[in-house]
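A favour, since you know our structure tokens better than I do. What I am after is a single protein written out in full by you. Could you add the entry underneath, on a fresh line?


***
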Amino acid sequence: MMAYYFRKKVKCSKCSANMRGVSERGKRKYYCSTYHNYRTCMRWVVEEAWLLELIYDHYKIEQLKAMESSEDIVSEEMLNKLSESVEVIWVNPELNEVTIHYNNGTKTIVGSNRLSIWSKE
């Protein structure tokens, strides 16, 4: 089985633990390893496909800002490129919020309404 793209990059902002990659109902997901091991944190599930979509959208915005042509996600090479552009992903189960920090100093914040906000740090 293929490794999870964001292994050791998805973090729980409540307890700072790594989010654990799991396969549930045929979908790749992440949830707090502290919850999994000790049940002392919250189990808030984040789907890997959704994270890839958010990161790809951010990537397209960056390309448009740089006036480059955008690529479609079609290859394993592109998925790996997206994964490598991410420094860390913080998941806040209390606020139902995900914050993706990129290696170039930008970030994407997504709240419970699934609307994303792109910003410079």
